[in-house]
Write a structure and sequence with these properties.
- The protein has two domains: 5-81, Phosphorylase Kinase, domain 1 (2-Layer Sandwich); 86-240, ATP-grasp fold, B domain (D-amino Acid Aminotransferase, Chain A, domain 1, 2-Layer Sandwich).
- The chain is 31% helix and 30% strand.
- It has helices at residues 45-62, 98-104, 133-139, 144-167, 216-219, 225-240; strands at 5-8, 12-16, 22-27, 30-33, 38-41, 69-74, 77-81, 84-85, 88-95, 111-121, 170-177, 179-181, 187-189, 198-202.
- It has a five-stranded antiparallel sheet.
- Bound molecules: thymidine-5'-phosphate (TMP).
């Protein structure tokens, strides 16, 4: 099935297929943090993230959000529409955590209502800097209409995912999205949605360490990383059978 290796990233490998409009995404167990200064493996992460992403992409599609997902063809691989990636990381925050707290002094856990939508430049050499609307204009990283569309889609995705994770007794604290353009220049959601790209807090406990069900367990050496990812998968799958 897989053709040539097109690109190997930190967590995934992209292969060509015999259809130029379709690519194959392979999910690895490799994990990195702090712009790859910290490296490791999370056993079975590739399988778990592939399964969680598959379900969430399907759920978003069912709600009318266009995504690159076409078909999941193996435990670690999905066929996706080939997109021209927009080099932005769109971060949506419902609760203050991570770099927002570090950079602004806002206390961990402060509710952000309305949610914050932020744009970072996807460039490891520059350390993925936070952009401003003026910087995006000067850099011509996307048109103003495209940026407005990214914000609109990110807000809609946030509504759908926040509600779904709440039904799993999980708070969707924040998450990162990547988008691309298809041949008709439509904006489609790409990449993955998983505990690698979301902060997820277990609503069953307020303990600041115990509640963490995402990659922060790896970033901060909190232990029980595999177990946390597995628990997210179990809750997502249990809820997926509800309707
Ligand atoms: P941050 O608080 O470190 O800026 O992260 C915000 C969200 O984005 C969090 O859910 C983790 C996710 N994220 C990624 O998916 N990839 C990254 O490279 C970074 C820095 C964050």
């Amino acid at each position: 099935m897989a053709g040539k290796k097109l690109y190997e990233g930190k967590a995934k490998i992209i292969y060509t297929t015999d259809d130029p409009a379709v690519l194959l995404t392979y999910f690895k167990d490799d994990a990195t943090a702090f712009n790859a200064q910290k490296r490791g493996q999370i056993v079975d992460k590739g399988k778990i993230n592939c399964a969680i992403s598959t379900y969430l992409f399907q759920r978003l599609e069912a709600a009318g959000v266009p995504t690159h997902w076409l078909e999941t063809t193996g435990e670690r691989e999905m066929r996706v529409k080939a997109l021209t990636i927009i080099p932005l990381e769109v971060v949506v925050r419902n609760v203050a955590a991570g770099s927002l707290c570090r950079q602004t002094g806002l206390p961990l856990g402060q509710i952000l209502n309305p949610p914050l939508v932020e744009f970072y430049y996807k460039d490891d050499n520059l350390g993925d800097p936070l952009l401003t609307p003026d910087r995006m204009r000067v850099m011509q990283v996307a048109t103003e209409e495209q940026i407005a569309e990214l914000r609109r889609q990110a807000e809609r995705i946030n509504q759908i995912l926040t509600e779904f994770f709440a039904s799993c007794a999980i708070t969707l604290v924040d998450f990162k999205l990547e988008f691309g353009l298809d041949r008709q220049q439509n904006v489609l959601l790409g990449d993955e949605i998983s505990p690698d790209t979301c902060r997820l807090w277990d609503q069953a406990t307020e303990d600041e360490t115990q509640r963490v069900m995402d990659k922060d367990r790896f970033r901060q050496d909190l232990g029980q990383v595999e177990q946390a990812y597995q628990r997210v998968l179990e809750r997502v799958m249990a809820q997926s059978h509800q309707r």
